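TODO from last week: model Phenylalanine--tRNA ligase beta subunit.
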Amino acid sequence: MPTIGVKRDLLFDALGKKYTDDEFQKLCFAFGLELDEVTTEKQMMTKEQGDVAAAANASEEIIYRIDIPANRYDLLCLEGLVTALRVFQGKVEPPIFRLVDPVQRQVLKIDASTAQIRPFAVAAVLRNVSFTPDSYKSFIDLQDKLHQNICRKRTLVAIGTHDLDTIQGPFSYEALPPEQIKFVPLNQTQQLNGLQLMEFYATHAQLKQYLPIIRDSPVYPVIYDANRVVLSLPPIINGDHSKISLSTKNVFIECTATDLTKAKVVLDTIVCLFSEKCTVEPCNVVQPDGTTVSYPELAVREERVSVKRANAYIGINEPATKLADMLTRMYLEAKVDAKDGDTLSVKIPPTRHDVIHACDIYEDIAIAFGYNNIKKSLPAFMQIAKQFPLNKLTEQLREQVAQAGFTEALTFTLCSRDDIARKLNKEIESLPAVHIGNPKTLEFQVVRTTLVPGLLKTLVANRKMPLPLKLFEISDVVVVAESSEVGARNERRLCAINCNKNAGFEVVHGLLDRVMQLLSVPWKTGTAEKGYHLQATEDPSYFPGRCANIILNTAVIGRIGVLHPSVLQAFELTTPCSVVEFTIEPFV
């Protein structure tokens, strides 16, 4: 689910009303969105990038971070969000999007060579744009959000926007050997060919992830103007010559793609969301076979749905006129069929490409009606079910451990590499950890392989509380497993920590014994084949000579011991701690 950040004051000005945080949260909820966080640019830079120096110069202006459904591409910028909310509130009618045909259309010719790599392209022109610093930033951010969402990190579609006044049509889309493509990349001064560009951006924080899309291809896609000026090398980077700026008045948009349908959706979304600030001109795209197609299409289609069926599916009983009003508020202009009062005629605008079936229309009716307003009812049929055995055991153990005097904690599944490695005196390379491919924050880089760091952080946050502090958690960790279909597996563990003036090893040992007693597992003595016992071991996370493996029958299921002072220091703790952690899955 993508998250957008919008300036609160700018948003309220556009909506024409000021809200409290709680009021705006309720508005978002009613529309099917969620206000995720109220923050500032300074706080965001500190949290996401860890750059304290850069954050010092950042703005303290309030920013709303709003979670957007993954299929609502029309809400990924301030302009689209404001329009949708105003329509939802009944302040404006759903806008009608029109193309303004120029005296002479711009032309983009697709060469047959592009079939080897990215065969499709669409284009449009935004004429007489008036960018402000905020709308310019929103325009750039929208492209980035689309690239990460529907464009699947540029693998399906790559967007290029250019200052039309610096280039000359007709434009050509070709595929050439990389050494033949030479241009100055965006915000650079040195001319590079395709091969040099790959090497130059191999370590770039943002662009390096896109290089593999075309790097191993014998030809690279490239767009030229009539003077053979390079506009872009999709999906990597645009040329510096045609870059847009605050002073840009006319924008040429080109989208190259491996999926034509996705390219049309992306182009429609961009031009519709910014059509209020300019006029939209179509472009002619000449196909390799010589045929000419006009883009953007901005097609409006009509769907017909049954009022009776909509009411039955949602569980409400509303008249056709009210359902039509609900859909209109959701950006889907609807009217009751005069001949048949049970049918709604619904217009699907070019901004709502997420509506592909009647069930999507029913969903919008339910959102407008309000899920909380739908009366609860029992299903018309019965199903026999039972609790998942592992979850049942987890709930039973939670109650018993809590009764033993421990307080339950619920910590994040994601953590930093340091949390599970350096702070525990271990090397990250030696751990079977699942790493996040493109972590957004330093706090969430890997999936935890142990519950200990989360509980230690909880202790730090509550260190002002009186001792002893006794915490526990029963949750999943994730470890790499090559035999698994997805390359990793979940493992349910119980972890408990005792923090006091002395380590109190006997406290966690007593908890282990109590849990085993509840599970009817005896202490293994002599030649007994079944049972549990402890076996001394060494672990860098634990104090030397104060650590043991927990062995069930013949298998190691966990570890118990006193944490090493360096571990406590790494987590900013000054009080001794003893820990027990083991998997509960063998007991199911």
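Done. The radius of gyration is 30 Å.
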